[in-house]
Amino acid sequence: MIILGIDPGLAIVGWGVVDYSKGRFKTLGYGAVRTEAGLTTEERLAIIYRDVNRIIDHFHPEEMAVEELFFTNNITTGIRVAEARGVILLCGQQKGVKIAEYTPPQVKQAVVGYGKAEKKQVMTMVTSILGLKEIPKPDDTADALAIAVCHGHSGASRIGQYFNH
Q: Which of 26, 98, 117, 152 makes an SS bond possible with 108, Cβ 3.0 to 4.6 Å?
């Protein structure tokens, strides 16, 4: 099963694609969609839409795992990220990709075995699980790969975490 993991953002959308088969992962690709701060929100969303569609067209994932939003202090930033996340979900829906979502503690639990793990622990484990030579950069990319690994390990299709289409 080819899984596209997404860490949504407006400035940086981390993405990672893995093939999960027989309990093993193979990394197919990863990177980040970047948008410039000087652009309007609409322009940035259009770039995210275009690039996520290109990623889906290139890798043909069967399933997409997207991190749920976790609001801290800045509600304005959270709203912008939510808009980007909506565009990402739209891309998957339009391409017929099954979509699942996970909270940051769920991702940490699946990757490290502890829902309150530190970011560095998650990055180290993802690098090890995927057999990568170094931690993927930027952090958003490593997070996206962690989300993909979480989805592979979770068996989301068996526990009904998919959005209803």
A: 117
Annotated catalytic residue, options 51, 63, 101, 140: 140
pTM exceeds 0.85, yes or no: yes
Residue 164 belongs to some domain of the structure: no
Active site residue 63: no
Q: Is 62 an annotated catalytic residue?
A: no
Domain presence at residue 37: yes
What's the pLDDT tens digit per position in 23-69?
899 999 999 999 999 999 999 999 999 999 999 999 999 999 999 98
Residue 165 domain flag? no
Q: How far apart are CA 17 and CA 3, in angstroms?
A: 6
The residues pairing with 12 across neighbouring beta strands, listed in sequence order, are 34
143 catalytic per annotation: no
Tell me which of 7, 63, 101, 143 is the catalytic residue.
7
Question: How distant, in Å, are the alpha carbons of 37, 48, 142 from that of 29?
Answer: 26, 17, 11
Catalytic one of 51, 67, 101, 143: 67
Cβ atoms of 149 and 106 closer than 8 Å: no
